Structure to design on (417 residues):
């Protein structure tokens, strides 16, 4: 089994190690290990190129349980350990519900960043369908939590004070769920977003993303080679670059106007304002669908080459999966927060927990159905680094030529009008 552990020897400063321990299925002594426990082990450390954390492999005969030396940890490390143990106590609350193992694993991964309970089959289904990103805590999850906290604490008159309360809570949550790259990136971007919003500057821009990247690389330059760091920033960069053009194109495409040409409507009409002149449920659904398609396509444009390079796979039904998964993820997160806040009302808490488990079960079934569709993924893709760079260069060249073409077309449209 795999886990992270801190080396707390008296001779050296404590440091992190990614450990793999071979299970002894005869004595089953590995079952006694839990979060915060201490072991004494004899193994070799290995540090690969472009890695900041060493790895080790421990055999069954070369370790034993000992008292943990928490006093050797720094204050931040002890705080992180205590928060993660608090997370374990929160997960224990799910035993009050009738949730099956897969539903419990999905809720633990989405809400609290614990992916250790996910089975390989469940991971494969989410990977094939293109929904792996909903299992990893990222900007979507922290954005929802930030919105809820902002709704409670931030008011127009006390915006600065509200941000001073919300942002520490966001970072405490990031510390509790393990400080993964995607969570740190999302928390950093939210902090920058809050700062520039208080300064009345454009809050969601390339400058915000760039500042978050610079801060993370200054803290740990090895993040540049981290897969999660690359995919996370490429996804947000794709949304920043391509979201508005795709929304504009789709909104004009769905407009029921035959008096003007497509080109005229493409450059005169606003993004989502003129899909329908009246506010109706159908109009709202159109805007939501267009927004979801735009976000999925824009993020996929820049992450697909990296996913194909690292994992050799391209999910063909990613649009369908996101249209199904994102609403359920939002409902699960909202209801999970309500579940934890209702600890003082056990009967109502159990009802809410069963509702969350029901949502998670439906989501698992839908994802499994998408992953079982014919040609749901293209596997066995083999790309070299030079080929990935060439793909991005071709994409940049295509965008540049399209921008020039549309600029000339816009000039002609307005000149004739």
């Amino acid at each position: 089994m795999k886990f992270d552990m801190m080396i707390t020897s008296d001779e050296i400063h404590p440091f992190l190690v990614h450990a793999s321990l071979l299970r002894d299925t005869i004595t089953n002594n590995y079952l006694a290990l839990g979060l915060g426990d201490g072991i004494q082990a004899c193994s070799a450390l290995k540090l690969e190129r472009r890695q900041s954390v060493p790895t080790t492999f421990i055999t069954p005969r070369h370790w034993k349980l000992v008292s943990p030396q928490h006093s050797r940890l720094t204050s931040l490390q002890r705080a992180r350990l205590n928060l993660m143990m608090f997370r374990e106590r929160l997960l224990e609350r799910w035993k009050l519900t009738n949730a099956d193992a897969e539903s419990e694993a999905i809720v633990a991964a989405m809400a609290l960043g614990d992916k250790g309970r996910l089975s390989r089959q469940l991971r494969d289904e989410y990977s094939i369908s293109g929904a792996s990103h909903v299992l990893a805590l990222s900007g979507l999850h922290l954005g929802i939590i930030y919105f809820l906290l902002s709704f409670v604490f931030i008011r127009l008159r006390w915006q600065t004070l509200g941000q001073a309360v919300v942002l520490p809570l966001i970072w405490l949550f990031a510390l509790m769920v393990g400080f993964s790259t995607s969570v740190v990136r999302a928390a950093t971007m939210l902090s920058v977003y809050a700062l520039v919003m208080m300064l009345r500057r454009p809050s969601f821009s390339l400058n915000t993303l760039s500042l978050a990247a610079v801060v993370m690389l200054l803290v740990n330059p090895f993040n540049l080679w981290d897969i999660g760091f690359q995919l996370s920033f490429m996804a947000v960069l794709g949304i920043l670059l391509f979201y508005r053009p795709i929304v504009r194109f789709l909104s004009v495409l769905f407009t029921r106007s035959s008096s003007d040409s497509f080109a005229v409507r493409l450059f005169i009409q606003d993004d989502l304002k003129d899909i329908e002149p009246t506010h109706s449920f159908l109009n709202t659904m159109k805007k939501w669908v267009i927004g979801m398609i735009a976000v999925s396509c824009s993020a996929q444009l820049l992450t697909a080459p990296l996913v194909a390079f690292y994992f050799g796979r391209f999910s063909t039904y990613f649009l369908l999966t996101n249209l199904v998964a994102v609403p359920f993820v939002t409902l699960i997160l909202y209801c999970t927060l309500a579940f934890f806040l209702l600890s003082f009302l056990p009967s109502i808490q159990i009802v809410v927990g069963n509702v969350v488990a029901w949502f998670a079960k439906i989501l698992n079934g839908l994802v499994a159905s998408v992953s079982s569709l014919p040609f749901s993924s293209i596997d066995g893709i083999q790309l070299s680094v030079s080929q990935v760079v060439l793909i991005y260069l071709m994409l940049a060249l295509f965008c540049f030529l399209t921008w020039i073409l549309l600029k000339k077309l816009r000039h002609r449209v307005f000149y004739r009008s």
Remarks:
- Residues 268-277 have pLDDT under 50 and may be disordered.
- The first helix runs from residue 75 to 92.
